[in-house]
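Lab notebook, bench 4. Continuing the backlog of folding jobs that were queued last week. Each job is logged with the same field layout so the records can be merged later without manual cleanup. Today's entry covers Sulfatase-like hydrolase/transferase, a 559-residue chain. Filled in by technician R.K.

JOB TYPE: sequence-to-structure
TARGET: Sulfatase-like hydrolase/transferase
LENGTH: 559
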Amino acid sequence: MTISSKLLKLAHPRWLSLLVIGLCLGYALTALTRLPHWSLPLVAALWMAMGTWLNWGAPQSAPSASSSRRWPWSLVPIALWGLYIYLSESFGIVDLGAVFFHLQAGMTDHGGVSRIGAAIGYTLTMVALLAAITWLIRHDRRWSLTEPFLAMALLATNPLLYGVTQRGAAIVTDDGAWLDRQYVQPVILEAPEERPNLLLMYLESIERTYADRERFGDAYADLDAIGEHGLAYEGVYQIDNTGWTMAGMIASQCGSPLMPAGLLHDRQFTPLDKVVPGVDCLGDLLAEQGYRLSYLGGASTAFAGKGIFYKGHGFETVLGREDLQPLLDDPDYVNNWGLYDDSLYDFTLEEMRRLDQEPGPWGVVNLTLAGHAPRGYPAQACIDRQGEFDGVDILYSVECSAWLARDFLERADAEGLLDNTIVIIASDHLTMRVSAWEQLIQGERDNTFMLLGPGIPVGRESREASMVDVFPTILEAMGFTIDWHRAGLGVSLLSDEPTLLEEYSKTEINARMREERALQERLWNGLAPEPQPAPEQEKQEQVVETPVDSTGEEPAAVQ
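JOB STATUS: finished
OUTPUT FIELD FOLLOWS
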């Protein structure tokens, strides 16, 4: 047999179908388990060997004529598994709350260009896989008979559907208000005589877990150095619905997990025009105290409702990629998501100078991009300092983010902009899947949270807390007196009051959150348009009989 005839035989749909299924199965196993990537061809080879041994797709196993024309039951279950694997590969942990929220809040101007390419690749792969399954059930009676059971097994084991059913349990649960009963309306009871300024720095995905030098070397060293001048917290864990950027911001500024609006409004296919309008957040309270507030982020403010959130909660100035990119010396010096962090910090410094020249306290919030999964976006200033970036190593980007934050604070301090300023440094959430993923998930992970400034003690403190506790902690760090050291679901870590995580386990809180309805309604109260009163019907003109029409009869008496 010639080489060309052998290749022609291997190109038969039977072998192509088995090969496609084997490769997809191998990829799924390496993506969802800790199997190394080199095991993918091994899994595919074992699958091909089993298919050869069992004669799958061989002519003698052909099904009946009716079966040879039917479509597989497993088309949808396999597609759902493909979606789950894509989300898992992209983000590490699939958070349905994030999926629902971004669908509602809007996904325009996002920076996931690389993930769009991956999505196209996944789609083409799924088409090939479905074609392979279809060919086998149409050409092998055994596959035709057992495939419906495969479909049921795939549906029953898909974590994506498991999460949907858990969220659906909130509809029938006996108690959907457990978290809402813990909620304390944020109220400032007393303000300090001299109100300090506020600088709140969110470092994208730079969790405190990176501080472990045995696993991650000196990647976090500059943040450790910053923490030596203030109060650094350990044990700020991530509960459900706080694990993406907007959720982390809302948790730390509103004291509540971000529970998506769901079916609480009647515009399911249009972006939201309000974000958590039912609660008062940090910006609302500070604006009432006379603060002038600004937000600056490297990414677009249109993505995920960031601009809507800040404009709706007390911020006068909200600047993102669309506003800042035209002001760059080189407008092409941007990445998929937006501005590099060295540019963002320059603009933040300019905004602080502007605000500091005017009377009254100010607050500035910024959000970086250098640590964004999957590989980060290190700025040119970091490349000049650290050497060439290999395009993969997230620790390079973590080191870049930490160094730029330290450099920015040193520049601001040198100009006297931090003399009466409380500085908060926090990760917005734990990182998604990155090159150091296996090292990160070896143990408990926690968020970065540091306080610096006048009156802030120096040291390290360990508390079992979550991002909702950041909100009241910021208020008390600024000298405000709040009700029972609480705001929202959070408890000030500067007090001795127990946090939710110190009273209840993370598992219990997450379970309660899946059943919660009342807190969700509180967050989104006012989102649905007010019912409009029915238009008054025009009064019909009374018809009066003319003398010609009159019968001369008296009207009947009312009984």
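OBSERVATION: The chain has a mean pLDDT of 85.
SIGNED: R.K.
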